[in-house]
């Protein structure tokens, strides 16, 4: 049975209590969790793990590794406990998934750019872009959203990280489309400005995914509970950013 996009209200109380009980036991022995993450998760979630989870689970170690083509095999073979990735349509159906937060896109351009506060779809398509490829050769969420309305952007350069894409922008006419949470890290960067993207790009969900054989494993329940916890913190911050 596949657990897909679990709703908080549907979580079985026994599962929750088991996870809470496991938190009391994680200090009994050394435990290491290996989690594959994208650039997005490493910048947004990992700092929260350091601040809120690591201090209270002193014998637990988190080994966050880069999300790559071998990640799915790593989950299958038990070399990885969990992976965190956007709901881009490329997560194999054999894995269990849960949405941990929803995010928006932003467009980062050079400070001297003539663009104002937002990009229209016409402006977006007329521009050249620095693309960010998570899995080699597979379409990204922005490209899928554009394809759904019958258009395509031009990307003369691709990089593997959102942070690298932003670094490519100053002094050029390029547009970097990145998660808004990452774009906001650049608020003090005098070389760039952050714009609202075309509405067609919309929002996207961010997932944690695992092998279903771990559904009832007590330690894995604890791991998912703490990732869910930091995901909720990200969601609250995103809500404040939208309303603030």
Structure overview:
The N terminus is likely disordered. This protein has 9 helices and 9 strands. Strand 5, helix 6 and strand 6 form a beta-alpha-beta unit. Strands 1, 2, 3, 4, 5, 6, 7, 8 and 9 form a 9-stranded mixed beta sheet that branches. It is an alpha/beta fold and 244 residues long. The protein folds into 2 domains: 134 residues, 3-Layer(aba) Sandwich (D-Maltodextrin-Binding Protein, domain 2), CATH 3.40.190; 101 residues, Periplasmic binding protein-like II (D-Maltodextrin-Binding Protein, domain 2). Helix 1 crosses helix 9 and helix 3 packs across helix 9.
List the helices and strands and how they pair.
Blueprint lengths: L12 H13 L5 E7 L1 H6 L1 H8 L6 E7 L4 H6 L5 E5 L9 E15 L10 H6 L1 E5 L8 H8 L5 E6 L2 H6 L7 E5 H4 L8 E4 L7 E8 L7 H26 L1
Parallel strand pairs: 1-2, 1-3, 5-6, 5-7
Antiparallel strand pairs: 3-9, 4-7, 4-8, 4-9
Keywords summarizing the entry:
244 residues, alpha/beta, D-Maltodextrin-Binding Protein, domain 2, 2 domains, 9-stranded mixed sheet, 25% strand
**Shape descriptor:** globular
**Would you report the number of β strands?**
9
Tell me the structural class.
Answer: alpha/beta
Top CATH class of the largest domain = Alpha Beta
User: What percentage of amino acids are in beta strands?
Assistant: 25-35%
Summarize the structure.
The protein is of the alpha/beta class.
